[in-house]
Specification:
The complex is a heterodimer of chains A (630) and B (181). With 630 residues, chain A is an all-alpha fold. Chain A has 24 helices and two strands. Chain A has helices spanning 13-19, 39-49, 53-66, 73-86, 90-102, 107-123, 127-135, 144-159, 163-173, 178-193, 197-208, 216-235, 239-246, 256-269, 273-284, 291-306, 310-339, 342-349, 375-379, 381-437, 439-456, 466-486, 492-511, 513-628; strands at 24-27, 30-33. In chain A, strand 1 and strand 2 form a beta hairpin. The longest helix of chain A has 116 residues, at 513-628. Chain B has a domain at 69-180: Immunoglobulin-like (Sandwich), CATH 2.60.40. Chain B has helices spanning 2-20, 34-63, 103-110; strands at residues 69-76, 83-91, 94-100, 115-121, 125-136, 142-153, 158-167, 172-180. In chain B, strand 2 (83-91) and strand 3 (94-100) form a beta hairpin. Classes of the chains: A mainly alpha (630), B alpha+beta (181). Chains A and B meet through strand 2, helix 2, helix 3, helix 5 and helix 10 of A and helix 1, helix 2, strand 1 and helix 3 of B.
Chain lengths: 630, 181
């Protein structure tokens, strides 16, 4: 079963608000932002374009608090207002728009703000206030919003029962959109109800003639117009006209049952009961949960009675009684089932659990024996709004539970940091002490003095690298041994080798004097830089050392207060969730009770008719006998 | 039978009205302080959003303090010459992100959204970032391109934006890296 909640097809409010911004442009059906000057604003758009309204609101408010969107201040306010609307927060949105107006924002922004204030007021049933807000819009709005503005104004007039004004206004704006058709249709029905049949029919006839070879939505509204015309003519007892319009309703459309029922009543007005029976008998074969089908059993029996086929009529009344009795019991069972809470939780299970926003709609109803009886309810504005609230409350609840879990992770992080700090503190303090006492500087000065000595005294061997020093050390040991051995033996060859090797090393060091002395000087410079950086960092480390305990404490306190707040909010959301669930159940039960009452009245009517026929049957032979009596 | 007809008529008109505008028999149902409940829900939403804001700020302070924070963002221009499938990020030769895109995410990027692809911590000093983009290039060909940036992390938080731009003159996508102050 698919539901279509037509007004929800309006562009998302936030998106249409966005379209009015300087950096935005409309490409086809999509709004594209051309110039992002702050990354965090772009990130909000990224979430918003994916209809993650909850996340995008949080993202934007975090950026606002961190002051990271300096280049998009005004747009972000208007966008936030739109996102609040998309998340069903009319009040918060209203506050933002009112503030923008008060701040005397540029005309373009003020116009948008007035427009959306009017929209909010309209949704809240504040029609004169909505009209007043509309009157504050100066000049024209941008693109499609201008069209939407006109339609909203026509709706405001309609809601205030100013039908003539609405009629004139709609004629003036010459809008041909489906929305305009809906408004015209509503206007026509309202006029007919007010007894202003002629102007009402005029509008309905126009809608009933529209060409819609492919468009299912147009076909549906055309059927509706013809159906309403048909029933209106039945009410006026002009069956020829009624038949003309009822025959225009498509047989495969979902209004065909009602059209068939109406056709029967129109023939009834022509006292053509045989023809009336045809559509009603067809209806008898259809789903008995449909109100037109239910009524058709009674109507069939009634027509048979008119054709003086009382025996058959009696059978139909009996069938009707059986069906009505069964449906009344079925509805009673459904009411008990709904009151147990199963229905609402099953509805939620058929839906995607995401943050689709206020324009999310119930697409798929759970399949229940009573589902057919709840079609109107499920498509109704009140139920849809309540369901959205219910779904949002689930979202809030799960969000709060996730944060409560995450806070324990924060505790662990903080604890780990505290421990790490405690471990590092002695080393930090020791190094800080060294910096304070100038120990590092003293070491550096000693190093420089040694380098200066090497250079001043041309102490070449001091510039030998570690390998060379190792070799020299080895050669020194060899020399010592040679000196001892020479006393006993001739070691000239070995001495010559020693001389050669030590000469090679000394020559190598001497030949690299230039680069090596330059490297030593460079080392000093690098040491100076490192010392400078270390001294600067040690200041930061010292500050951090002083601040750290305070930060740990501050974060700890924040975590604790957040935890308390989260638990409070979770309790509130649980309470509200229960209240909302009760409200949804009450709405469903009320709807089923209404239908139960309707079927019960059919049942009473059928039972009464059966009694009448039986009375007639029992009284007729008595009359005959009386006639025969002398 | 007139009465029966009356029932039919009223139900038809009501149902008709219901479909033209979302108002039906259900809307005439008794509303047990729906406004009160609606206000309650709106107040709750406002409070939950506010606590989320504060918690996100706290989380960032705890996990990614500004002194070590590095955030990598990704933006896509028109996207005519390149359809993004995935991105891999390497920081100092270590893979930090492998991201596969859904159609909805790609659409959000094409419409001007900027994705925060990675947030992490780095020490002060020089670091190397390598981003590898995989997707469909001109004429639907498999396309794989990399961009490298060596950047300096200082005391403040570091933001880097990876940009996928259409080059109309070359009929090719271009991949740029921008450092934000």
């Amino acid at each position: 079963m698919k539901f279509r909640y037509s007004l929800a097809l309006l562009l998302c409010l936030g998106a249409s608000l966005l379209a009015s911004q300087a950096g935005a442009e409309v490409k086809g059906e999509k709004i594209v932002w051309k110039q992002v000057r702050d990354l965090d604003f772009g990130n909000t758009l990224y979430l918003f374009f994916q209809r993650q309204y909850f996340s995008s609101i949080v993202n934007l408010t975090v950026s606002k608090k961190k002051l990271t969107i300096p280049h998009h201040k005004q747009e972000s306010e208007l966008l936030l207002g739109g996102m609040y609307l998309s998340f069903g927060m009319h009040r918060a949105a209203g506050e933002i728009f009112a503030e923008l107006i008060e701040k005397n924002a540029p005309l373009r922004i003020r116009n948008r703000a007035w427009f959306y204030l009017a929209k909010i007021r309209y949704q809240r049933d504040l029609y004169p206030e909505a009209e007043q807000a509309m009157s504050r819009i100066e000049g024209k709005l941008k693109g499609d919003q201008e069209k939407e503005r006109h339609l909203l104004y026509a709706n405001i007039l309609l809601k205030q029962a100013r039908y003539e004004d609405a009629d004139k206004y709609l004629a003036k704006i010459k809008d041909k959109s489906i929305w305009s058709l809906y408004i015209r249709y509503n206007l026509a029905v309202s006029l007919v109800r007010q007894g202003k049949v002629e102007p009402g029919h005029k509008i309905l006839k126009k809608i009933g003639k529209i060409s819609a070879p492919e468009d299912k939505e147009l076909q549906a509204i055309r059927d509706r117009a013809n159906l309403s015309l048909g029933y209106s003519f039945i009410q006026q007892e002009i069956p020829e006209q009624a038949l003309k319009y009822l025959r225009r309703v498509r047989l495969e459309g979902h209004l065909s049952n009602k059209a068939l029922l109406g056709l029967g009543w129109a023939y009834d007005q022509q006292q053509d009961y045989n023809r009336a029976l045809a559509p009603w008998l067809e209806l008898n074969k259809r789903n008995v949960q449909d109100s037109a089908v239910q009524e058709s059993f009674l109507a069939t029996a009634y027509a048979l009675g008119k054709l003086e086929q009382n025996a058959q009529a009696l059978e139909y009344y009996k069938t009707a009684i059986e069906i009505y009795g069964g449906e009344v019991r079925r509805l009673e069972d459904s009411i008990i089932n709904i009151s147990s809470g199963a229905f609402i939780s099953d509805i939620m299970q058929t839906q995607q659990q995401n943050e689709m926003g206020w324009f999310w709609e119930l697409e798929q109803a759970p399949v229940y024996p009573e589902s057919n009886y709840l079609l109107d309810l499920l498509a109704s504005h009140t139920f849809q709004e309540s369901l959205k609230n219910y779904r949002d409350l689930h979202l809030l609840k799960s969000n709060l539970e996730t944060w409560i879990h995450n806070l324990s992770v924060f505790d662990t992080i903080l604890e780990t940091r505290r421990n790490a700090y405690a471990e590092r503190l002695p080393v930090i303090q020791q190094n800080s002490e060294k910096v304070k006492n100038g120990d590092f500087q003293k070491l550096r000065d000693q190093y420089e003095a040694e380098i200066n000595r090497i250079l001043d005294t041309d102490d070449l061997l001091a510039m030998a690298n570690s390998l060379e020093k190792k070799h020299l050390k080895k050669l020194n040991r060899i020399q010592e041994k040679l000196d001892t051995i020479t006393l006993h033996r001739d070691m000239n060859n070995a001495k010559e080798k020693y001389r050669l090797l030590s000469g090679v090393i000394k020559w190598r060091v001497a030949s690299q004097y230039g680069p090596r002395s330059w490297a030593l000087k460079k080392n000093i410079k690098e040491l100076d830089r490192a010392l400078e950086t270390y001294q600067q960092r040690s200041k930061t480390i010292l500050t951090a050392e002083q601040k750290a305990p305070l930060q740990f404490e501050g974060h700890g306190q924040r975590i604790d207060s957040m935890r308390t707040l989260l638990h409070e909010l979770l309790a509130r959301s649980n309470d509200t969730l229960n209240e909302q669930e009760t409200l949804l159940q009450d709405l469903a039960v009320y709807s089923l009770r209404q239908q139960q009452d309707r079927i019960s009245s059919y049942l009473t009517h059928a039972q009464f008719s059966v009694a009448q026929i039986r009375d007639l049957a029992t009284s007729e032979p008595q009359d005959d006998e009386q006639d025969k009596a002398p | 039978m007139k009465k029966l007809l009356g029932i039919a008529l009223s139900s038809i008109l009501l149902v008709s009205q219901a479909f033209a505008e979302p108002a039906s028999t259900a809307d005439s149902a008794p509303k047990p302080d729906m406004r009160g409940l609606d206000k309650q829900i709106q107040d709750l939403k406002k409070d939950v959003l506010a606590v989320n804001r504060d918690l996100f700020i706290l989380e960032e302070e705890l996990l990614f303090p500004a002194t070590s924070q590095v955030a990598i963002f990704l933006s896509v221009d028109v996207g005519e010459f390149f359809k993004l499938d995935s991105v891999q990020l390497k920081l100092n030769d270590k893979i930090v992100t492998n991201y596969l895109y859904t159609d909805r995410e790609v659409d959000a990027l094409h419409r001007g959204g900027v994705q925060r692809l990675h947030i992490g911590n780095l020490k002060q000093g020089k670091h190397e970032l390598i981003a590898t983009f995989v997707g469909k290039g001109p004429k639907g060909r498999e396309y794989r391109r990399g961009s490298t940036l060596v950047f300096e992390k200082k005391l403040d938080a570091k933001y880097v934006e990876l940009q996928v731009i259409d080059s109309a003159s070359k009929y090719q996508p271009e991949f740029k890296v921008k450092e934000w102050e």
